[in-house]
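Allow me, if you will, to draw on your knowledge of protein folds for a short while. I have a record of one protein: its chain in single-letter code and its fold written as discrete structure tokens. I remain grateful for any guidance, and I place the record below:
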Amino acid sequence: MVDSIVIIPTYNEKENIEKIIRKVFSLAVDFHILIVDDGSPDGTADIVKRLQTEFVDRLFIEERKGKLGLGTAYLHGFRWALDRHYAYIFEMDADFSHNPKDLVRLREACVEGADMAIGSRYIQGVNVVNWPMSRVLMSYFASVYVRFITGIDIQDATAGFVCFSRKVLEKIPLDEIKFVGYAFQIEMKFKAIKYGFKVVEVPIIFTDRTEGESKMSTRIFREAFFGVIQLKVESWFKRWK
């Protein structure tokens, strides 16, 4: 039985979606894939549904109406995966900024004892390709800021390439997750650590998308900046057990 599922949120990813699906299914380790599509007007969901006839019982899709946000897409996927008893549940982008080959390394980290494995751009220097320096600096210092405010020792707090052991997602109250963008990624890491789970960082090389459009916005960045403070303050009044 396949114990691992890769959740890939999509919005207008027709250039990438078939290639990323085929790449994941070509790996030596067997993974299932769940696409959570937010009503892509470019036909992304239609491509996935065509591929489902080829990858029967391996490729799944959940379609939502409207662009509801990255965080809510992952939460939808987490609940779907938990209901189907997967042991390892992954977050990954559709645009090849995350190398599908690294799924195997993240899974190995969890099999060997980690509860949450992060594909980290900054655990061994700065491993980012094709980003302008301004964005590299913004991302790097965002993690410095998160460490300063929250006290968690994570070098890449905004990373979106993650493997969760199911017990982490069973423990964290998913209904209480507040944020949808970068702050969502920070919140999941912060709460995993506060609940006492073992979180490790696995070095990866992050390559910016070559096809499609970035979903980054100033609203997402603003949410992360102020959300970190909110997370820390609220943690003072919460019992972690």
In short: Strands lie at 4-10, 32-37, 59-63, 88-91, 116-120, 128-129, 162-165, 199-203, 206-207. The domain at 4-235 is CATH 3.90.550.10 (Spore Coat Polysaccharide Biosynthesis Protein SpsA; Chain A). The chain has a mean pLDDT of 91.
